[in-house]
């Protein structure tokens, strides 16, 4: 019997609740798509949008919600935990990413190195 496929990212209970709220009125196949783009002073930034899965994407389904990891972002997000940070006047998704090597001072962009899947799965 094959081993279950490990999830690319862990979605915290707080992040799952926020995703459920965002998807409350969305179509059944829609999820919160997470990707990374080149840009910002540190080199890359996280991007999110409501979308349907595309070929090659990793889909994380949970009760009442779905997070879609863009195929091009998988190696940059392996082992990441997605959470929500709540301040007095705002809330935002945050990423605890073991592939992050630095971040800019303003917090808008990060420097990421692709994960080595062989090392990640060897530790499992």
From TrEMBL:
Domain Core span(s) in chain numbering: 11-108
Annotated GO biological process: iron-sulfur cluster assembly
InterPro entries linked: ATAP (IPR016092), ATAP_core_dom (IPR000361), Fe-S_cluster_asmbl/transfer (IPR050322), HesB-like_dom_sf (IPR035903)
Membrane spanning stretches: none
A cellular-component GO term for this protein: cytoplasm
N-terminal signal peptide: none
Molecular function GO labels: 2 iron, 2 sulfur cluster binding
Family: Belongs to the HesB/IscA family.
Protein name per its UniProtKB record: Iron-sulfur cluster assembly accessory protein
The species this protein was found in: Methylocystis parvus
Source organism phylogeny: Bacteria, Pseudomonadati, Pseudomonadota, Alphaproteobacteria, Hyphomicrobiales
